[in-house]
Here is the input.
Amino acid sequence: MTAPGIRDGQDAEDLDVEEVLALVKDDHHAARPAGDRGPGPVPAPGRGNPARPSGAEPRHRATPWTDARAIAGRAARSLAARRTPVSVTLGDALGLVLAAPLTALTDLPSFNTSAMDGWAVAGPGPWDVREEGVLAGHAEPAPLADGEAARIATGARIPPDTTAVLRSEHGRTDEQGRLHPTREVQHGQDIRPRGQECRSGDQLLPTGAVVTPAVLGLAAAAGYDTLAAVPRPRVEVLVLGDELLTEGRPHDGLIRDALGPMLPPWLRALGADVVALRRLGDDAKALHQALTLSSADLIVTTGGTAAGPVDHVHPTLRRLGAELLVDGVQVRPGHPMLLARLKPDQHLVGLPGNPLAAVSGLLTLAEPLLRTLAARPAPEPYTLPLREAAQGHPYDTRLIPVVLRGDHAVPLHYHGPAMLRGIAAADALAVVPPGGAPAGQEAELLDLPWAVAGIGACFT
Ligand SMILES: Nc1nc2c(c(=O)[nH]1)N[C@H]1C(S)=C(S)[C@@H](COP(=O)(O)OP(=O)(O)OC[C@H]3O[C@@H](n4cnc5c(N)ncnc54)[C@H](O)[C@@H]3O)O[C@H]1N2
Ligand code: MOO
Here is the structure.
């Protein structure tokens, strides 16, 4: 069914009966008799306490969206504190979080060094220029006598008793080979004294700092070969569904697996070490075995979260005696997503099979859990005004792909739960409250990792 009022790119299956009815009725708002007040545009209920159209069945068990994110973060909190730091080479440390303060292992600079190419000079000029110059990386040169100069390169060790460095563009040599300054020389100029940036033992960065390329550079400069870091949470991805092809075009009711290629790099961008991706079909036994044997910190399943004949996730979790921490979330798309504790130190996030619903589950449940396990800081929440109105769900939060243009978030079309066309062009997801948001209303934004950091920064 396609309800009048469903916007371009919105998927009718995304809307439940109440929502479709709300849209239909909303469309005929003008034709209502005077005094007929409802239901009309559904009023925006408060988060977590949604107003429901009269007669609507409350969605039992479904957790409000903000609560679901908080529960996912909390579920990992005590585990995060107990994770043993790992020692990783600088080459493997990008994106990890420091498990110990970065303390300087040396003074920086570790010797008095020249800030410029030119001459090290002693006393006032003119100076006799020593035959042998000083290059970076050389052993300590002999002391300068008063009235003596030595050619010196940027980064080279300053000879003892040097009083200043004269830049090459500020000196000239006469016929006798004596060096004259062409401008006044200040005592100590262009000498970087040992320890100017830090002394050995100074704290350069605290525990919890994210290892960026700049941190790698600083650590190397300060003498580190390895860093103590919080290990990446180990994640196993189990893709469920007999209808999935791994190559070629869809045919005969079979479709391409869109989640297998999408989830591992996305999980990596969220800080995970993806140890395995396995396609299990719709095989309850294989799922049970995979969950029993896995030693990952987090198992992410895709599909099979609803109540169809081959939706094996709930029955398998029941069989395993798993504790369901979140069983359905008041969010569209993705409302059947779930979070379970399989063992005290092992969780499962069940993502719905519809691909945009899976993205919603990834950002709602997997992101806070992985962030907490990886000890990454929470991104600062921020909002931007919507450039166009965003259609809301009557009583669930909706996540809508947007592009950021100037100071506005522009909602994208093709945001139905089975569609990736919108998110593939997006910079962020806008959090649209129940009832929707008119143009100009501020919406909270969830940045997509590559939109902020660039592709190279988050997928290495
Ligand atoms: N009776 C009900 N049926 C459904 C409900 C509901 O509330 N009551 N919710 C719908 C919603 S909303 C979603 S989302 C889906 C979630 O279903 P599952 O998690 O059980 O997923 P599947 O049924 O396995 O698949 C749904 C859909 O997605 C396609 N799919 C699955 N895996 C992939 C993949 N790796 N790549 C691309 N596409 C995939 C699959 O073929 C289906 O079309 O349930 C609704 N039903
Ligand atoms: O609305 Mo579902 O949750 O299609 O994803």
Remarks:
- Residues 14, 332-336, 352, 354, 357, 417 surround molybdate ion (ligand 2) (CB under 6 Å).
